[in-house]
User: What shape does this take?
Amino acid sequence: KQEVTQIPAALSVPEGENLVLNCSFTDSAIYNLQWFRQDPGKGLTSLLLIQSSQREQTSGRLNASLDKSSGRSTLYIAASQPGDSATYLCAVSSGGSEKLVFGKGTKLTVNP
Amino acid sequence: DAGVIQSPRHEVTEMGQEVTLRCKPISGHDYLFWYRQTMMRGLELLIYFNNNVPIDDSGMPEDRFSAKMPNASFSTLKIQPSEPRDSAVYFCASSPYGSPSSYEQYFGPGTRLTVT
Assistant: This one.
């Protein structure tokens, strides 16, 4: 059974700092990995999707990497801003290719 | 497109009552997913549909839960009878058909259910 773990559970940084969020998964047979952002009381917004054949994806100040063999992904946020404060969730497709298994998220606070 | 639409946004009900949650997926998307989010268990997949047909309901907690998708633009998740432990945020998501490695899911705003 696929399990996804995100460390740390919470992170507080000053504005402008570069930071890394970690995600690990137990079964390397995945189709893709997605990073989501969730604001309080809101739904999830997809940030990046990395296909199993890819090593990384970039969008603006965000860069996500994938190492299938070691069961790890990182989300790098450059020059963090208070608006980046949210919970970041990692999810992998597992079982059937359409199914996502989620980690419990990292709650990020960027202090002005 | 308006994105995935869910209603109601908030629902408060008493134990034993029937609850129906509604979802309208993004037009043209072939897959629809129902998730439940709690502090203890995080986000869990309950059931998903492909072209209106239920594919996997192994995440449905028990017989009190049922889901239907009568057409491509509407789905319901019903709880009968509801219990306090069903209190959670329920999300609906949809995904377009594509190569398996590129499925991307789009989430609705969720329904916050409180059962007293």
